[in-house]
Amino acid sequence: MKHYLITDPIFYGTTPKAIESSLDVIYSHKLPDFALFRDKQTIHYRDLAETFISVSRSYKIPRVLLHGDCALARELGADGVHLASKRFEAISEAKKMGLYVIISTHTHDEALKAQEFGADAITYSPIFPSPNKGEPKGLEDLKEIVAKIVIPIFALGGITTEEQINAVSTTGAYGFASIRYFVP
Question: pTM of whole model > 0.90?
Fold first, then answer.
């Protein structure tokens, strides 16, 4: 079961020094297979992303991604990009740049569309209750989508405990993604 860390400025801070310090603490306890820098509000995204990539590389995180910006991901040497749902048109652009592409999905139709458009993987959410994310899909729905598509699926949403990770692992999902699970 692959582990996918997603940042949030609430837990990682909003300066390069804060991000570096937070990642040092987190990576010393839990090393994910995938790590995404996501901060939708900062005007200093580039500087923070550079720090995130540098620290993640120093811990040898296998796949380091940036949120939404294909050109910046390529320029800064990230492995890939995580696209917001509905950004299906950006999949081919990112693939042409040689980026690994994950896209957020929330319905079976979106998951199938992501596969059709050539995404490398998807997040499917929310699986469990998660703040401001709507009605949870649950494990049965996750099993259904896992059976429908062949690209890797990361379960996302409300995954904060080992018990939840173990439950997700029974569905055949490739992995799980979380913000809060990785925060000590």
Answer: yes
